[in-house]
Write a structure and sequence with these properties.
- The chain is mostly beta strands.
- 0% of the residues lie in helices and 58% in strands.
- The chain has no helices and eleven strands.
- The strands form two sheets. Strands 2, 4, 5, 6, 9, 10 and 11 form a seven-stranded mixed sheet that branches. A four-stranded antiparallel sheet has the order 1-3-8-7, with no helix packed on it.
- The model has no long low-confidence stretch (mean pLDDT 95).
């Protein structure tokens, strides 16, 4: 089992920045990748950014490319999501997730609310 705890959400004005963190504990040795997702009210959950745990390769959704940056600190078992140039449409609950097999996310955090005011 892997436990994930997110932090860093909050209220920010459009154009502002936030940094989310996701601390992993438990059986993290089996983790192959971690990702950030979000879900806005009435919308489907979408994947925003993925980072491989060993090599640090990253992938981004078009909606956040150039504005969001995913990074990891292996020593701290923590993944971050730096969010810049935030827009009201970025308002959502943000979740981190861990994968042991490609594309399959078995472990999820509790979510953190991000609200961007116009």
């Amino acid at each position: 089992q892997v436990q994930l705890v997110e932090a860093g959400g909050g209220l920010v004005q459009a154009g502002g920045s936030l940094r989310l963190s996701c601390a992993a504990s438990g059986r993290t040795g089996s983790t192959s990748a971690m990702a950030w997702f979000r879900q806005a009210p009435g919308k489907e959950r979408e994947v925003l950014a993925v980072i491989t745990w060993s090599g640090g390769s990253t992938h981004y959704a078009d909606s956040v490319k150039g504005r969001f940056t995913i990074s990891r600190d292996n020593a701290k078992n923590t993944v971050y999501l730096q969010m810049n140039s935030l827009k009201p449409e970025d308002t959502a609950v943000y979740y981190c997730a861990a994968s042991e097999k490609p594309g399959k996310y078995d472990y999820w955090g509790q979510g953190t609310q991000v609200t961007v005011s116009s």
